[in-house]
Structure formats: structure tokens, C-alpha cells
Amino acid sequence: MSGGTHGIRHVVWLVLIVLVWTAAQAGARPDGVDMSANIDEHDIAGTSVEKPLRLEPDSTIRVAIELTNNTSDPLEIRHVDLAGHVLGLSFYSYSTAVELTVAPGKSESLRYRLELRGLSGQAVGLIGGELAVYDGSGAAVAAIPVITDVRGSLWSVYGLFGIALAVLTALGIADAALTIARHRLSANRWRRGLRVLAPGLGIGLVFAFTASVARWWVPDTGLWLAFAGVSATVAFLLGYASPTPEPDEELDDDSDDVDENVDEAEPYRFPAEGPKP
User: Considering the entire predicted model, what is its pTM?
Assistant: First the structure.
């Protein structure tokens, strides 16, 4: 069972690494570039949980982008990326190569069709994403956040990610429950709290994943961390405030019986003439 706890600890480290990576990747984009876009004639800037952009696997969507270059340099666009992110990780991504140059002070439009091949195996549920345009060096020039309703499969990469979280959390809960049932919790309150903290963290992560797949809301990084932090804190406090485990009474009784048998045993005495050769 200890493997389940170790697995959830790895998830904790993954969350921390993702946060650092996301902060490092959040570079400044050029100022003075205005972007608007619509997909299937719907403005993606107006997407929300109530009105998400519905993405059907193996369908074709029409993308229209308008860019205004308010800078003093020509703006070269080399590819457009539609991607969905969870905890800083991309679970679906469609990149389209384009060739568009926007002169200073000018506006240009870009229109193309995008086939969503393989989407069913990539993600499912409400996922926050963005439509971004990149220059020749690979730097993001402009982007528009979009909330997508992906009609994929639970056995997609994102679905399996959530299932793995659920399995690791179940193993962690079973490990903690077995430890409590066997009175193996540490007498130190801090150690008891830390022992049940990992399953609590997993519960929060699984709840956030369930909210995404059930299409209740979009669990962005802030919500994931909020759920995980609250559930981990509650679990830690429960472990910290739990009664100090007492020694097993059956073991004490057995040790007392052994001591009594030792005390009652009569020592062996050799005959007066000494031991026989």
C-alpha cells in the first residue's frame, strides 16, 4: 500500500514542477498587436462555462483571425495553434502552418479550415485553452483564451490522467486506513498529519478532474490548487488532531504471560555428587 502514498507524493512534485514551468514559460508578448478570432462564425472571446466552444472529434471547423499591427515593425505569422491546457500541460493541440505578413499600422485577415483528427483520444470535458499566433522564431505574438467543451472519450490521455489520479488516491486512502486500523500511526502529531495529507491532496485533485469531465466548470490551475490545498489541509488537521495511538493490549498481555512463565519456572539443580560424566 505504501506505493500508493509514494505515487501521490509524485503527483505533488508534478504539480510544483508544473507551476514553476508555467511561470517560466509566461513570457511577455509584444505590445501593440490586436487580435480577434471566431470559429464557425462564433467569437471565441465570448466563450464561458455556459457557452463553451464545442469541439467534436473528427469534425472540421472554420477559423477566421484578424490581426492589427500597431507596432513600427512588420509582423510575420508562421503558425497558429489551438490548444487546451490543464495544470500547464497541453492535452490537445492543433498547429497550422501559415504565411502572413502584417505591415506596420495595417490589419490582415487569416482564414482556414481545421480538421480535429484524433481529438477523441486526447481529451474530454470542459478544458481551458487558447488560440495563439506565432512568429518565425516560435514566440507567441498574440492569443485569445477560449473555453472548450471537448466531446472526446474518457479513455483519452486526459481521461487516463484523471483515472490514474483516482487510482493513486484510492491506494493512498487504503494505506492510511490500514495503518489506522493496525494502530501503526506515529505518536508524533505532525507525522500523523503528514501521513494522511497525501490522500487528502489526491481527493482534491480527483474532485477538480471530475468537475471538468462532468462539465460543471473549468478547473484552471488556481481551482486545482485550491481544491487540493483545502482537502490536504483538512486531512492534515484530522491526522494531527487524531488521538495518540496506544500500544496493542494483546501484545502487552502476551508479554506479561511470558514474564510470568519465566518467573514461575524452577531452576534445575544438579545432584549433590555433581553431574555424571
Answer: 0.69
